[in-house]
Every structure is written in structure tokens, then in C-alpha cells.
Amino acid sequence: MQISKVLSLCALSATVVLGANNLVQKVKDNGIEAIPTSQLELLKLIDDPKDPITDAKVELGKKLYFDPRMSKSSLISCNTCHNLALGGADGIAAAIGHGWTANPAHLNSPTVYNSAFFKAQFWDGRSPHLADQAQGPVQAGPEMAAPPKLVEQRINSIPEYVNEFKFAYGDNVKISLKKSRQRLLFLKNTHYSFSF
Ligand code: HEC
Known about the structure:
This protein is mostly helical. Strand 1 and strand 2 form a beta hairpin. The chain folds into 2 domains: 1-33; 39-194, Cytochrome Bc1 Complex, Chain D, domain 2. It is extended, with a radius of gyration of 21 Å. The chain has a two-stranded antiparallel sheet with strand order 1-2. It has helices at 3-29, 39-46, 55-66, 78-81, 130-133, 136-139, 148-156, 159-169, 183-194, and strands at 96-97, 101-102. Bound molecules: heme C.
């Protein structure tokens, strides 16, 4: 390689490194923090002492997330629109839900990755916390269109789910939509993406 080429390559890499450092500083100055890499620090941000996150709850949340029986048609799961293999979204302009109908407000599916850390959920930020809105998509007409009673009946009719709910929440658990806190799944996914 010619000397001039080597020199210009060095100059180019120095500019790239300096540019990246400036950008990192700018981001920090704007109050944006990196997600902690330690599981302990991460849990401090999202765990709820009244309903602590456990492996059993995470596993249950994961199953429910992928289960189309949680929709009225038994065809749509959370993963239909928030496909974890597609970055937690579906890559189409307006989400297609129950009855293969496009979202009436022409909304597309935001990613669910790391959404446990968001201070506001949905495009208009109307829901403050993931757990508050976890029941929404199952019932919402344009999404899964399943009344809570139907979902509860279905879960109670599957002995494996009943056992898993008991394992996760104790023998006296009353199975409800509220208990299927998808928040836990997202946490687990964060674990995967940061692989610790
Ligand atoms: C038919 C497609 C569809 C299905 C099925 C669906 N969602 Fe969504 N989801 C959306 C759309 C569209 C939005 C944005 C809605 C809005 O902003 O009003 C959204 C928003 C969200 C958000 C907010 C994310 C953010 O960045 O604000 C979360 C979390 C979420 N969905 C979780 C779920 C879970 C959990 C399930 C399964 C129980 C589910 N969704 C099922 C389409 C879907």
C-alpha cells in the first residue's frame, strides 16, 4: 500500500473515532443513559417488590406472548405484530389485526424491544407503564379482539397453563389477564439481547 493511502486511511479513522466520541458526549449531555449491563442494576429499574420478577413468571409470559389462542380467532398472537425475529415489529405500514383488518388509525406496530424501560407507551404516549397496557392488545378490536372472559376460560381449560400459573404465582392464584404481565417477557428479551 502506498504511504499516501495509509496516511489518508489513518486520517479517516481518526475522524470517525473523534466523530463517534462527540456523538456519545452529545447523547449524554441530553440526559440519555445506556441500559445497565448488569442484571442487578437492570432489575432496580423495573422490578416491582410487590410482584417480583421471577424466572417462572418470565417463562409463562413468554408462552402467552407466542400463543394465538389468546385472540378471539385463535390466529393472532402478540408475535404476529411484534415479531421478535423482525426486531419486535412487523415491518408493514399499518398493523393487520382481527379479521385481517388494517389498523383504523393507520398505526404501525412499534417495537416491543426494551419497552419495559419506556416512561410512556404507544405512539401518543397515553399509557405510562407496560403493565398498565398489557391487557389492552388482547381485548382491542383492531388487534386480538378477545373479551377477558374468553381468554380466562381458554387459559383455565389448558391444564399446563393452570399448573404454570400456580408455579409462578402460588396455588391460590386466580388466573386473569392482569396476571399475564408481558412486561416480564420484554425483560427477558433484554437479557437475550444483552446476553448475560
Ligand atoms: C394486530 C397487531 C397487534 C397485535 C396482535 C398486538 N399489538 Fe401491540 N401494538 C400494535 C400497534 C399498532 C401499537 C401502537 C398502538 C398505538 O400507539 O395506539 C402497539 C403498541 C404496543 C406497545 C407499546 C410500545 C411502544 O413503544 O409504545 C406494546 C408494549 C405492545 N403493543 C405490546 C403488545 C402485546 C404484549 C401484545 C399481545 C398481548 C400485542 N401488543 C399485540 C399492534 C399490535
